[in-house]
Amino acid sequence: MDLEDLSEEQRTVKLLRMNKGLITKQKVSSLPAKLINGGVAGLVGVTCVFPIDLAKTRLQNQRGSQRVYKNMMDCLIKTVRSEGYFGMYRGAAVNLTLVTPEKAIKLAANDFFRQRLSRGELKLSVFQEMLAGCGAGMCQVIVTTPMEMLKIQLQDAGRLVAQQRPMLHTVKLGTASPVLNCSYSVGPVSSTRKVSAIQITQELLRTKGIQGLYKGLGATLMRDIPFSVIYFPLFAHINQLGKTSEEDDVPFYWSFISGCVAGCTAAVAVSPCDVVKTRLQSLNKSANEDTYNGVLDCIRKIMRKEGPTAFLKGAGCRALVIAPLFGIAQVVYFIGVGEFLLGQTPFNLYSV
């Protein structure tokens, strides 16, 4: 229907809706705004959930016969007692440095592939959404693999020290006396050699070249591609349920809920791949821990020695990490922090 055929009131409403549509298109097509949104979301999210991520890494790496931590809370309590409060943030600097490009690539790549696959259509099919997520997952591993590699070395250092500590305090009292195994509370470990991400990077580049930083690339792809294939379509459909009409935006709280639900679901679904990736990327192991010669060898040894339940180690922690992380990411992304900072669109918390 032409504008001339409408009443003045109807014409005004339609023009407002058209303008709103133009603003939305401008917001979607702004790459600098996307990068800012992804970076801010990553920084806020990682800062909030990093201690839980540390617990997840340590739980995934411990073997059945050498258990140091019973569960997530036990891991966090022992970490604070032995390494201090900041021990829970071992490896956080790596994540905070690299999470900005990682989240920016992930979110921006997904939007890019969605736009390319839509070909002017208003709605994508589920298969097209899955393809867009697959493309985003493949792009992000450029940054994700080295970031995870360095983070895991720093996060797992405290577990290895805690695992060896009881052996250091084994004392023999005479020939007739039994061996007393005493694990003393010695406070923060002063004998632990502090290793930085820069030192690990330099050593890997010196000994193995650039491929040293990409150890576990196959396992990372095996985790991140299915994650993105599940997460992005699921988020899009759950988020769509929050719309009251085609013209209205989704309220920020619904984007948060959608991000949490989709992130939690995808995280649990790919948790076995995350266990394999964590084991492959752990360079420092104790004397009794297995080494692995690739993804298949890792899967075989875990299945044979620890059983199928080992593939779900840290699944609860991972869900607790990913759910708020992606909830926060989507809120920042959909609120439009980047657009607000660049002066492109109004800063709006609620749908209007």
From TrEMBL:
Protein purpose: Mitochondrial glutamate/H(+) symporter. Responsible for the transport of glutamate from the cytosol into the mitochondrial matrix with the concomitant import of a proton. Plays a role in the control of glucose-stimulated insulin secretion.
Keyword check for Metal-binding: no
Protein name according to UniProt: Mitochondrial glutamate carrier 1
Catalytic reactions on record: L-glutamate(in) + H(+)(in) = L-glutamate(out) + H(+)(out)
Keywords, sorted A to Z: Membrane, Mitochondrion, Mitochondrion inner membrane, Repeat, Transmembrane, Transmembrane helix, Transport
GO cellular component, one term: mitochondrial inner membrane
Chief subcellular location: mitochondrion
Protein family per UniProt: Belongs to the mitochondrial carrier (TC 2.A.29) family.
Membrane topology: Multi-pass membrane protein
InterPro entries: MCP, MCP_dom_sf, MCP_transmembrane, Mito_Solute_Carrier
Transmembrane segments: 310-335
One MF annotation (Gene Ontology) recorded for this entry: L-aspartate transmembrane transporter activity
